[in-house]
Design a protein that fits this description.
With 209 residues, the chain is α+β, with helices and mostly antiparallel strands. Helix content is 44%, strand content 20%.
Amino acid sequence: MRFSKAKLEARYAHAFPIAQGIAVWLHPNAEVVLHDFETDRVVKIWNNFSRRSPGEASLIAEEIQLEQDRDVYGPYERSNWDGRRLKCVSSVVRDENGERIGLLCLNLDVSSFDAFSAFIDLFTATASSPPTALIERDWREQIHAALGQHLREVNTPLPALTRAQKIDAVRALDAKQLFSTRNATQHVAEILNVSRATVYNWLNEARNQ
C-alpha cells in the first residue's frame, strides 16, 4: 500500500511533537529523521544536515523490522556525507494498535566535540607516575592514592559512601599498613568526615572481622 505525503504525515502525527522537541532541544547538533517501514521513505526530517528530503528512500535494512524483541537500536556510529562523525540512536514508532510502523532516528553530530575532547585528554594526561622520591615518605599522598584506588574499585564517590563502605575503605587502608603513622587516623577521619574515635572503632571492627 502506498501513502501520499499527507497521509504519511497524518499517520505519524503523534510522533511529531516528540521529534520536534528533541530537535529544538539539541539544535543545531542533532538531526531527527522519521522513517516509514512500509514505504521505506523518509516521512519528515528536522535540523537537516544529511541532505535528505521527505519522500526520499530510507534504504533501511529489512532485518530491522524482523527484530521484534527490540524497540531501541544503538547508540551506534555513522558518518555524514561530509565526514562528520555521528552518534545515532533509533527508536521504533508504533501506531494506535501497537504495530511497528516506523523508526525515529536521532543523529548527533559529535565531531565538534572531538577537538575539545582531544584538548582535554592532552591537558589532563600525565606522562608517568610521580618520582618515587616525592611520595615514598609522604604518608598523606599514600593514603590519598590508596583511597582513590579503592573508590574507583567500588565505583562510588567519597561523599556517597555509606557507613559500611567507609568501614571497607578503612579496612583497605589498613591492609596497606597506612595507619602506622601517628597522624594518619586523624587525617583519614577528616577525609571521611567523622571523628578520630570513629575511625578507631572502625579499625577495630574491620580487624575483628
